[in-house]
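chain below, 143 aa
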Amino acid sequence: MITIIPDGSTIIQLVNFLVLLWILNQIFFRPIRQVLIQRKEKIDGLKGGVKKLAEDEIEKGNAFENGLKEARSKGLKEKETFIDQASAEEKEIIGKINKEAQAKLVEIKKQVAEETEKARVQLEKEIENYARNIGEKILGRAC
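prediction:
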């Protein structure tokens, strides 16, 4: 059987191992851990930012929907107001046109009556001449 007796080289190897472990930790492992920690913090920060942006987007979407509903209701009210105004103006214009038409109708009736009266007076004046001419033609002699 072989027995191993630790001697001074074991201690040197142990010290060498610990120094190497410390150097590797200082040069490689610690910077890599720092980068991983920074990356994790950055990812967490981005996740928080994304979450906040999502919440903001939901709030803005709700505000947009509410604004759209208000604008639609306001637009409908204005539309109804315009329709009422247009209806009132239409009635007013139709009333004016009816009054003007009635006035022109009265004027035309008056004018027709005057022309009829003038024609009747004119024909009454000419009736004697027509009667005399007809009588002369029927009798064949001058009256």
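The chain has a mean pLDDT of 91. The radius of gyration is 58 Å.
thats it, cya
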